[in-house]
Amino acid sequence: MRSLLPFTVSHRDPGSSARAAVLETAHGSVETPAFMPVGTAGTVKGLAAWELERLAPQMILANTYHLLLRPGVERMKILGGLHRLMAWHGPILTDSGGYQVFSLAARRRVEENGVVFRSHIDGAEHRLTPESVIAAQASFGVDVAMVLDECLPYPVAPEAVAPSVKRTLRWARRALDQAAKEIEEGWLGGVFAIQQGALSEAHRKRCSEDLVGQPFDGFAIGGLAVGEASEQLHEAVGFCAPLLPEDKPRYLMGVGYPEDLLHAISCGVDLFDCVLPTRSARTGKVFTSIGDINIKNARWAEDGRPLDSNCSCPTCVRYSRAALRHFYISREATSVVLLTMHNLWFFLSLMRRAREAIMASRYGEFRRRIIERRRQGPDDAGPKKR
Amino acid sequence: MRSLLPFTVSHRDPGSSARAAVLETAHGSVETPAFMPVGTAGTVKGLAAWELERLAPQMILANTYHLLLRPGVERMKILGGLHRLMAWHGPILTDSGGYQVFSLAARRRVEENGVVFRSHIDGAEHRLTPESVIAAQASFGVDVAMVLDECLPYPVAPEAVAPSVKRTLRWARRALDQAAKEIEEGWLGGVFAIQQGALSEAHRKRCSEDLVGQPFDGFAIGGLAVGEASEQLHEAVGFCAPLLPEDKPRYLMGVGYPEDLLHAISCGVDLFDCVLPTRSARTGKVFTSIGDINIKNARWAEDGRPLDSNCSCPTCVRYSRAALRHFYISREATSVVLLTMHNLWFFLSLMRRAREAIMASRYGEFRRRIIERRRQGPDDAGPKKR
Predict the structure, then answer these.
(1) In B87-200, where does DSSP find H-type helix?
(2) Which residues of A touch B343 (CB under 8 A)?
(3) pTM for the complete prediction?
(4) B112-123 as b/e, with b when 16 or more CB fall inside 10 Å?
(5) What CA–CA distance (Å, rounded) separates A300 from A326?
(6) Å between B113 CA and nearest CA of chain A
(7) At what angle do helices A258-266 and A230-240 cross, to 10 degrees?
(8) Distance from CA of A380 to the nearest CA of B (A)
């Protein structure tokens, strides 16, 4: 199968496994390391497409589960596909819906053929199969589709892992066959496989060995950030990433905090997605270069400084912490817009700077400096610019 | 008292009382007729300041009542004033808080000195006096402050009108004295009086006669759009507007529908404010050149056309009705942003075009054409651009 998603490693950091690379897609290049903002149902919550463009993410993520239920495959076709719906013309990756379905717990059952579940919107029964989720993503016109996988919970009984991983592997082969058909019929995207295996290095190894021989366009690490401690996550990323091919993009799904991203990059991960910056914006949590801020806190009520004096996002350029606190506690809809812009700017600029540091062969130093400064915590003793 | 708000009529429409004028303020010129978007608590709900700038309103309105309760006068001073809080550096007009307080009904009582009320936020007792509301608005640094007035409900007992109007007139004089002090102390704004008198031409006349001799910078028509029928509103505007001076701006408070604005302009009104475009955006009601749309309606679910094919707002340029319906029913925060942008664009562009029509001495024809097209209603039978 000819790859429609060529991937080139531009530079490797000499002191770690970090690499700077480019993934080409029909909707543009994705310079990695890259963080994908989440646009679940067709918008990054609170942002018009022109705001998203201003943030210039390399690629964005949308959720197949939500889009399958509404507007649905048929209607999405009529509407001209996902890029048209979102009014976003850069690269898009969709997940397979598996993660959301497995989170439904009581409302779904797993069969060999796929997963049957009830919609959270109207209770109607739906079925996802490895083939149907690839067909759906291809019909959405996405650049990267993910295979249907079984995402195990944390903690999980050790004996449950092997059969689940085997099913994920059988599903991956079926997904790849379906992708080949879709590409034959004109889809200009590609498919990433998902490595599973809970926190077991042995299972992750067996899973990867099966996947890496197949012509996937990229490989994801799934089933992490599901409740395990930060140390466990870091350790797992450390042994999961090197199991995946050097010459294909590696994507760590659903992670995470800035410190987690910086660690994973050092292990050779290229792509990330997480609701953290966008969801946090809606609960008043703000990421900054000197640690994180809860904007609700009364300590900011008369603070005329920007959220982050090292940030040049549109929000920091114009608004004080005090104003943003006022908007948040007054429940102004604009608060979501302003804090989402800032948080995404922080994550995206962190990735851009990580890439620059890799290109300059000084990633280790960069990572140490970022983590140290964020440990300081936001200062409220200094002179206030009012 | 020297006026800090010079007002010049640029052109009068020969076929009506409509006029095109310019009101100068310390934060820029206000070309009229103009519609002021409402930014109650310091934001136009859903819009970052840079979005608001893109809409380029001539002036915006904020609510003194809300700002007095939060952040409050002292904190607003510390934060550098309302322009700084809003990150909006064009002209701002604030209402006096009277309208909001009178809507509280059971939770307020009127005394000769002012109004006592309980906060809707924490139940704390507050007092507004004619002096305190001017002082508050001046300390916010607004360009136009409104006097405290008594806004009568609809319908109202005829015998209640005269004593209420007399109190409003006594309060107006006290407001003017306070404004003179504030200007002496450096405030660069001005004060508009408010004509009251319910739906009685005689009361409106007596009220105006008392006000027009005083050095106000402009005159508002208050107490309309409080529940009376559209015909009553139009009739009242017809006799209220000519009672106010020709050489000062006339401001019709809290109105209204596009058809109401077009009528009031023909009667010689210059300024408007209303929550209609912004509040409607949050309930899915969309204004267009061919009538209004409820975006929730299933009839738009597969309609690939923009909200209004005659509109060049950022939303219409990028998004289909179907996409906007999907975002609305999916309760996406972005829906508020997109529909607010469109609705405000519609109102602001209507005012700009009204001004052009006045300048070209063809306002009557312009108004007829707009109203006729809006009566058509949005077409859903035509070919769909997908």
Answers:
(1) 98-103, 130-140, 158-184
(2) none
(3) 0.96
(4) eebbbbeeeeee
(5) 9
(6) 30
(7) 30
(8) 16
Helix (H) or strand (E) holding B279: helix B276-282
Q: Who's near A105: CB < 8 A, 6+ residues apart?
A: none
Residue A292 designated active-site: no
Residue B292 is encoded by which pair of tokens? 């209004």
Residues of A in contact with B52 (CB under 8 A): none
ipTM value = 0.96
For residue B38, give the DSSP letter. B
Question: Are residues A348 and A44 in contact, defined by beta-carbon separation less than 8 angstroms?
Answer: no
Q: What is the pLDDT of residues B175-213, one digit of tens each?
A: 999 999 999 999 999 999 999 999 999 999 999 999 999
- Please give the structure tokens belonging to residue B202: 């005689």
Tell if the CB–CB gap between B41 and A326 is shorter than 8 Å: yes
- Cα–Cα distance measured from residue B383 to residue A277, given in angstroms and rounded to the nearest whole number: 41
- Residues B243, B208: contact at Cβ < 8 Å? yes
Measuring CA to CA, which residue among A80, A74, A84, A44 is closest to residue A60?
A: A44
Residues A291, A378 contacting (CB under 8 angstroms) = yes
Contact A298, A328 (CB under 8 A): no
Instruction: Give per-residue pLDDT as tens, A256-298.
Output: 999 999 999 999 999 999 999 999 999 999 999 999 999 999 9
Q: Are B289 and B77 in contact (CB under 8 A)?
A: no
d(CA B343, CA B44): 12
- The amino acid sitting at A289 is S
- Contact status of B318 with chain A (Cβ, < 8 Å): yes
pLDDT band at B101 (very low <50, low <70, confident <90, very high): confident
Query: What single DSSP character describes residue A68?
Result: H
